[in-house]
Each structure stands twice: as C-alpha cells, then as structure tokens.
C-alpha cells in the first residue's frame, strides 16, 4: 500500500489506474473557431452548445497533448497514473479537466510542465506547446518555458508559498529568474502584480510573510506569481478547493477576468463539475488515467455520451437539486421537548495582551438552536465561523463562557464525571477526515468494538457480533472486519467511522464535514447512507458543513453561522429559496454551477 | 525585547543556581569523608595543623545547610574556592585555561558547520545516485568513529608519517588544526545528518514546486528556498553539539596534550580536586545557557513564524 493514502484530504499522490475504460477521446470536438484572443470569454450565456463541434478549428492549438502516458514507480513496481490523455487548448481558451481523485488529471497537468513528483515518469506521448515538444526539451530550456510561457496556480495556497520569504520577493523572483526585471524594478512590478491579482494594500502585503495572510490572500499571491510574466497559458490545479466557498467564487472570478484581459489561455483542473460548467468553454472528463469524454461544456454537461460522465453529473451536489433525505419529519404530535437545546452559547478565547490591556476573541456569540428527534439540523459556515467551537461545546469537550446545552432537559455543560460519561454516550461524532480518524493499527472490527469496550457493553462475543451487524448496516462486506483502515478507500473508511459512531446507539450523531474529504460520487453514497440510517434508527444529526450544496441534500433545517453569530436559521427549503440575510445570499450565490442558463443534470 | 532578555537572564540565574546546588550535593554530600575529599588525597602527608586549617576554612564541623549557604555566598561573590592541587583560586584556574579551549572548540564548530553543511547540500543536490549514497553514508561513519581513535590516527599519519603538523602542544595555529578536525568530525556528521534529512523533506514541499513552476533553477531552489527552511532543525542540533564540544575537549586535549579546560577537568577528576570539578560544571551550565539564548534569538531571524514571546 503506498504511503499516500495516509495523507489527509484528497490524496492525489496515490493515483492509480486499474481496469480499462474505453476512450472516447478520438473525436475531440473543437470549440467555436471564431474565438479571437479578445473574444475568448467563456461566458456560459453564449449558447455555442450543440453546433460547435461542426465548426472546423481555424487556429492552431496553443497546447496539444497527445497520447500522454505517465507512470509512478512504487515499491510494487510501476503503476500507470495516466494511460491515454489527449487535451488541447486554443490560444485564449479556457478548458476544464474534470475527474475524481485518481483520475490522473493533476498528473497530466504536472507532466505538461515537467513537474512530476519523484518517481513519476512520462512513458509515451507528445506535449506540443507553440509547436515545440516540451517532453523533448532539456531541463534548461524547459525552465525558460515554466513561469515565462506557462504559469501554474497550485492546489493548496497555504503551503505553496515559502514560509520564510517575503511575499514581494517571491513574486519578484518570477520576473528575476527570467531576466525580465531586477532589483528595484522587479520589486515595483511585484507590487503591481499583487495589485492586479486583487490583493488589497499590495505594497504592505509585499513586505509581509505568508503566515500573516489568509488562504484566499495567499492564493491571490500565487495568481500574481503565475501571471507576473504574462504567460500564454495558465494551468490552474484545483486553484480553490482548499478555500472557503465565497472566497472560491471571488478567486475564480478574478482569474477569469485576468486571463481574459490578457488573452491568456487556461487549463483548469477541477473535481467540481459545477466549477467546470461555470468557467470553461470546453470540458475534458478523465477517469482512471484516461480521457473518457471531451467537448464543449454545454454539450458535455447536458448531453453526456460516456456513462462515467453521466454518473459524475448525477452525483455532483452543486449541479443537481437532488435530495437524499427522507420525507421531512412530520411529527404527528410535536414532541414535548427537543432532543438538543442550545441557548445563548458564548465562547471567548483570550488573545495575547496588548498595550490596551487584555483582549478576547468571541469565537461563538450567542448561538441558540434546537434539534428535534429524528431531525437533521445543519450548521453552515466558513472557516472561522465558530462551527467547530460550537460542536466542541455541545460534546462537552470545551466549557462555554456563557449559555447552556441541554440534552432532553439535562445540562451537559456542567455535569459531574459519571453523568458526563453517560451523556457522552448519547452523542457520537463522525469526523471530517476518515484518513486520520481511524487508528491505523486496529482492524475494522476492533475500531467498531472500541466504544462498546470502553462502556463495557456485552461480552467479547456480543461485541464482535454487534460490530459485524453494524458493518452490515453501513453496507460494507463482512470481510472488511479483519482488515486495517489502510486497505480501505476513503468512502469505506467513512462508513467504518459511521458504524463506530452508531455502536452505542446514540440519540445524536454529530457529523463534522463528513463528506468534504471525499470524491463527489462517494459523497453521494455517504449522504444516502446517513439518510437511510436516520430512517431506520431514528437518530438525529447535527450536520456541520461549509457546503450549502451538500446541506441542501440532507438537512431539514439550517442555521447559518458567520463570525460566531447565527445570522439565519429556518427550514432548509425556505432558507435556500428565500434567504433573508445578505451573507446567506452570498453563500448561495457562491455555489458553483449556477451560471448555467438552464439546470444541468437532466440525465435520464 | 528588553523584557524578554530580562526573563531569559532570570532563567539563566535559576539554571546556574540549580547546577551549583546539584553539584554541591553530588560532590560533597555523597558518602565519604569530606575532610579527605577537601584535602584532595593529601591526608596521608598533611600535618594535623594543616588538617585543622582546612577544617576551619570550609566549616566542616558546621551543619550541612550552613556549609551550603557558606559555599553559595562565596560563589555569588565570584569565589568558588581553591584548587586542592595548586592552591590557586578555581575561578582563575579556569579563566586561564578557557581561551585555549574556546579557540579549539570555536575552530571545531566552524569546521563542523561548514563541513556538515557542505556534505548535506551536496548529498541532496547531486542527481548521481551513487554519489548521493556515498555522501549520505558519511555522517553515520563520522558519528561512529570514537574521538580518541581519530585523534591518534591523525597524529600517527599527519604528524609522524608526513611530518606536516605538530602532534601536541598549544603553539600557534598549526597545533590547533588536528585537534579541531578530531572534534569537528562527529559534530559535523551529526549536523550533516539532520540537515540532509530536513533538506530532503523541504525539497518535497509544495512551495518548492511553486518555485520550480516559476522557472527557478536548481541551485536557486536549493540555496534560496529549501536551505533556510531546513536550517531550523540543524540549528537546534548545532546548539547541542556546541555545548557538547566542551565535554569532547576532555578527550581531545588529553590526546593532543593541549592545555585547556578539558585537560584541567581530566586532571581534577583524577586527583579528586572537587572545587575545580564544580567550577567546570558551572562553566558547562553557563555555556549551555548562553548557547540556548543565542539560538533562541536566531530563530525568529530565520523563520518569521517563530514569534519572540515578548
């Protein structure tokens, strides 16, 4: 098993291609040829759609990848990550490469500029850029292309800047290494590039270090670096997947504006079909190392040819209005008291003292809501909104500064020890990252039995039987019981985590971003499972998420958190259809896939 | 900043006091005749009058806490007692030996940092696999060679066979070369090991990919991006190594017959000259405190994320 699986989030290094999916890549439809450099807007309103493929290309492609094949050397021999990739980009055109983790999309992007991670090797194919095969270039010549003619916007902005060098120097370096400017002039142009990338107070930022900037600001810095030399092509590798949704939209808007203004072509790598639908004129769908379908965005997304594309569209939360939750709970008689009551919850953290005296940060500010039995209540918010702190207080892991948390009328915030233990049993947690939340040395059976052992429920044999029953309930085959987490996929691991949470038959399961580390098709399956379990077991969910598109599918009621305050709450449909708070409206507008004139995913 | 330094100074005082107390307890209060210890093994030849004088001077008939208070008071006044061997004040004895040892350990440290750094940089930079393997195995060899053996070997080959450098003594810069190399070998090996490891880690970080995507060359990436990030763990280790060099000097100064704190320590332990031993213990404590302070002040300069806790 490669070490990549242990990494958190989307483990893109452990890409592998197993099995063969027939390629439909041969008939790569070219986009409307009339696209001059200036007119290369990918505004989705332009209905280029169906007729586009008949128009012959009038321009030679800027980038033309043919039959690319990339493999990684691992301890078990060589594994193909990309087996057949054909992608072409016209000057000024925006092309999206869409696929799930392991599809080889990121590997393809890196192979183009010769930046494969250690062990990666290009086996076959051509990468023609401005009529030169980049694969045949010597390192020195390739360096002249990188940054100068092809810019790269990396995936995770928080770790993609050198932590010990000033922002301005890192931007100026792009100009300096290509001899475009030096010294004072380079510094000035770096500030100008930061300004252009939409960073407020660029001169001040240039003197700061990356850790002093937010994720969104760091990504703007990386955009400034990628565009500093006015490249002809920008490769954006999941440029916003590590950012908050509202920030995501602004960043994508800005990249679009800039590339449009300079006539820069863009190869946009994304797992999010909604993003591809919004931004690209052409879409390339990759699966298991192969391009399975490509064509004009409109056509691919409304009339997909390949079954994989259809599945991807059907699963994409942002594109479909699909709901997986069962009928809304219609209590014949409203229960006398809710399961969970949170009233006036406040949490303050002490900040380092300044001259003005002690300061505090109000992370959670007067939050009140209730969760009824059998109901799914979703708390939505971006990073720093206080949703994690709220959850920690509900679970009794953090003492609130003010306010109360009641489980059926009993206060969980100030219980005695024995009582806290009994209450904790009624609330269980499913964590965000299934790659980190399961002990790698335990077998699946031991993982699921652990809460039973901790509370001394039943004999060893009964515990084992219960674990087997739970694994069956989360729709995993019985043979995973003896396996270790490392042998399971992300979705399977999350199922194990859910089984563990259900072991003690809790009343409330707190799901902390349970699907945000998973691929879209797996996301849909996990949401289905959660919904089915709720119907079968009658548990309540407190669902924490940053993603309204996911929440829309599963929640009965929603609360929107912003900077520690609950700015809006109400029934899910109502909040999404008629938001009253401007922030909620902003969140809804940030869901990708909404720029399409007509709803997508009309797949029979 | 001033508040920070003041706090660090206070910490240093506490560390020194602790070192003094522990060494006092260990050296003087352990089982054994404290009188014979004070006499430094001379009790067979000492006259009763001399013995009485020693008794009176150290207050050996006083209760222990008074002896301790007395010694601590003297130490605060800069008086650590007299050497039983020479009768000279301990502070002066050590102060006389210190410059020689500082010159030696300073040279060794510079050699270790330059040599270790060069090996680590070359090992992570080269694309020739065989060369990389050889370079990466050097630290392990360097660490596993005992200092006295290396010293004797160098003396044998360089001094006796080739007649290039003096084998012993304190005369001039030439006499410094062989002992400094002997000391620098294990120290540099440790620095090379840690630096190579953290360079390898840093070179796989995403920010390096960003730099490559800019079109930056390998030398620039190695020196301007990875090295500074990788130097933090190496710096921490270098501080420990620098402190250890004082102990290393005991062996090396003996092998090369150099005068210095190391030789002094060896002789003092040999003759149970406990006042001198305690002086050396305190010196070691001072060295560690100073080195730790220097490193802590360097950290924020290297990494802006390490805020000084002002």
From TrEMBL, chain A:
Q: What's the superkingdom here?
A: Bacteria
Q: Where are stretches of biased composition, namely Low complexity? A: 33-45
Q: Which CDD domains does the UniProt entry name for this protein?
A: ABC_NikE_OppD_transporters
**Where would one find the signal peptide in this protein?**
none
Keyword list, A-Z:
ATP-binding, Nucleotide-binding, Transport
Query: From the Swiss-Prot or TrEMBL record, what is one GO molecular function term?
Result: ATP hydrolysis activity
Domain ABC transporter: residue ranges: 65-313, 346-588
**Is Transcription regulation one of the keywords?**
no
Is the keyword Transport assigned to this protein? yes
Q: Disordered: where is this region?
A: 33-56
Which GO biological-process labels does this protein carry? peptide transport; transmembrane transport
List the InterPro entries hit by this protein, alphabetically: AAA+_ATPase, ABC_transp_ATP-bind, ABC_transporter-like_ATP-bd, ABC_transporter-like_CS, Oligopep_ABC_C, P-loop_NTPase
Family in the record = Belongs to the ABC transporter superfamily.
What is the official name of this protein in its record? ABC transporter ATP-binding protein
TrEMBL record, chain B:
| Record's bilayer topology term | Multi-pass membrane protein
Domain of life, per lineage: Bacteria
- For this protein, the parts annotated as crossing the membrane are 12-30, 102-122, 134-156, 176-196, 234-256, 276-299
Main localization, broad class: membrane
Would the keyword Oxidoreductase turn up in this protein's UniProt record? Answer: no
Q: Any one Gene Ontology biological process term?
A: transmembrane transport
Q: Which CDD domains match?
A: TM_PBP2 (cd06261)
Pfam families attached to this UniProt entry: BPD_transp_1, BPD_transp_1_N
The record's Gene Ontology cellular component field reads: plasma membrane
UniProt keyword Transmembrane, yes or no = yes
Q: Name all ABC transmembrane type-1 domain ranges.
A: 98-299
| Keywords in alphabetical order | Cell membrane, Membrane, Transmembrane, Transmembrane helix, Transport
Subcellular location as annotated: Cell membrane
Give the family, as the similarity comment puts it.
Answer: Belongs to the binding-protein-dependent transport system permease family.
Q: What is this protein called?
A: ABC transporter permease
């Amino acid at each position: 098993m490669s070490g990549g699986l242990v990494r958190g989030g989307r483990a893109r290094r452990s890409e592998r291609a197993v099995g063969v999916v027939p390629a439909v890549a041969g008939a790569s439809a070219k986009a409307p040829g009339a696209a001059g450099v200036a007119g290369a807007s990918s505004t989705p309103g332009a209905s280029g759609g169906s007729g586009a493929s008949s128009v012959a290309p009038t321009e030679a492609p800027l980038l033309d990848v043919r039959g690319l094949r990339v493999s990684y050397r691992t301890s078990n021999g060589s594994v193909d990550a990309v087996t057949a990739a054909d992608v072409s980009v016209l000057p000024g055109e925006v092309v999206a490469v869409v696929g799930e983790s392991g599809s080889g999309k990121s590997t393809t992007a890196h192979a183009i500029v010769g930046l494969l991670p250690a062990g990666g090797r290009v086996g076959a194919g051509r990468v023609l850029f401005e009529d030169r095969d980049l694969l045949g270039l010597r390192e020195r010549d390739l360096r002249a292309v990188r940054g100068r003619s092809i810019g790269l916007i990396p995936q995770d902005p928080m770790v993609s800047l050198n932590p010990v060098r000033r922002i301005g120097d890192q931007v100026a370096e792009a100009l300096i290494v290509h001899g475009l400017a030096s010294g004072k002039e380079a510094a000035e142009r770096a500030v100008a590039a930061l300004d252009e990338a939409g960073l407020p107070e660029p001169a001040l930022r240039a003197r700061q270090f990356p850790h002093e900037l937010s994720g969104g600001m760091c990504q703007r810095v990386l955009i400034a670096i990628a565009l500093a030399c006015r490249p002809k092509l920008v490769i954006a590798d999941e440029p916003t997947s590590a950012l908050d949704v509202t920030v995501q939209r602004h960043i994508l808007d800005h990249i679009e504006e800039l590339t449009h203004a300079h006539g820069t072509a863009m190869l946009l790598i994304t797992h999010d079909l909604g993003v591809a639908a919004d931004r690209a004129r052409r879409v390339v769908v990759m699966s298991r190392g192969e391009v399975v379908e490509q064509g004009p965005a409109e056509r691919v997304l409304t009339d997909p040819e390949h079954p994989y594309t259809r599945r991807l569209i059907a699963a994409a939360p942002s594109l479909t209005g699909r709901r997986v939750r069962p009928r809304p709970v219609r209590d014949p008689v409203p229960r006398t008291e809710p399961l969970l009551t949170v009233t006036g919850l406040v949490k303050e953290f002490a900040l380092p003292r300044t001259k003005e005296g002690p300061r505090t940060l109000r992370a959670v500010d007067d939050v009140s809501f209730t969760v009824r039995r059998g109901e799914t209540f979703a708390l939505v918010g971006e990073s720093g909104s206080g949703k994690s702190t709220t959850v920690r207080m509900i679970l009794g892991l953090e003492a609130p500064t003010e306010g109360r948390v009641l489980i059926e009328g009993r206060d969980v915030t100030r219980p005695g020890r024995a009582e806290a233990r009994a209450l904790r049993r009624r609330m269980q947690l499913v964590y965000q990252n299934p790659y980190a939340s399961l002990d790698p040395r335990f077998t699946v059976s031991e993982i699921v039995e652990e809460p039973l052992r901790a509370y001394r429920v039943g004999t060893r044999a009964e515990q084992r039987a219960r674990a087997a029953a739970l694994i069956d309930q989360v729709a995993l085959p019985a043979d995973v019981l003896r396996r270790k987490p490392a042998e399971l996929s992300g979705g399977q691991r999350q199922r194990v985590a859910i089984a563990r949470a259900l072991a003690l038959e809790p009343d409330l399961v707190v799901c902390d971003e349970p699907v945000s580390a998973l691929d879209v098709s797996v996301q849909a399956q996990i949401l289905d499972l959660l919904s089915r379990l709720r119907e079968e077991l009658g548990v309540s969910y407190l669902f924490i998420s940053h993603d309204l598109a996911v929440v829309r599918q599963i929640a009965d009621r929603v609360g929107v958190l912003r900077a520690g305050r609950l700015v809006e709450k109400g029934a899910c449909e109502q909040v999404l259809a008629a938001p009253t708070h401007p922030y909620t409206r902003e969140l809804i507008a940030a869901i990708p896939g909404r720029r399409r004139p007509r709803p997508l995913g009309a797949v029979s | 900043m001033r508040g920070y330094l003041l706090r660090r100074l206070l910490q240093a005082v506490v560390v020194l006091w602790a070192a003094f107390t522990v060494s006092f307890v260990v050296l003087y209060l352990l089982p054994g005749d404290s009188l014979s210890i004070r006499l430094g093994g001379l009790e067979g030849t000492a006259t009763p009058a001399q013995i009485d004088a020693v008794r009176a001077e150290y207050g050996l008939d006083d209760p222990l806490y008074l002896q301790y208070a007395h010694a601590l008071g003297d130490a605060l006044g800069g008086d650590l007692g007299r050497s039983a061997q020479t009768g000279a004040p301990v502070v002066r004895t050590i102060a006389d030996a210190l410059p020689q040892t500082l010159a030696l350990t300073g040279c060794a440290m510079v050699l270790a940092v330059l040599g270790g750094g060069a090996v680590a940089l070359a090992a992570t930079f080269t694309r020739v696999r065989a060369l990389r393997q050889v370079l990466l195995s050097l630290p392990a060899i360097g660490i596993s060679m005992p200092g006295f053996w290396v010293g004797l070997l160098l003396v044998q080959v360089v001094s006796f066979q080739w007649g290039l450098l003096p084998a012993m003594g304190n005369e001039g810069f030439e006499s410094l070369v062989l002992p400094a190399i002997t000391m620098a070998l294990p120290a540099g090996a440790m620095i090379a090991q840690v630096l190579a490891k953290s360079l390898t880690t840093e070179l796989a970080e995403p920010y390096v990919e960003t730099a490559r995507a800019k079109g930056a060359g390998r030398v620039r990436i190695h020196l301007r991006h990875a090295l500074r990030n990788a130097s933090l763990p190496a710096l921490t280790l270098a501080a420990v190594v620098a402190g250890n060099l004082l102990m290393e000097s005991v062996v090396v100064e003996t092998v090369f017959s150099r005068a210095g704190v190391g030789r002094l320590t060896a002789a003092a332990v040999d003759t149970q000259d406990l006042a001198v031993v305690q002086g050396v213990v305190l010196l070691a404590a001072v060295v560690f405190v100073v080195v730790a302070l220097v490193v802590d002040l360097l950290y924020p300069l290297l990494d802006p994320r390490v805020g000084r806790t002002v």
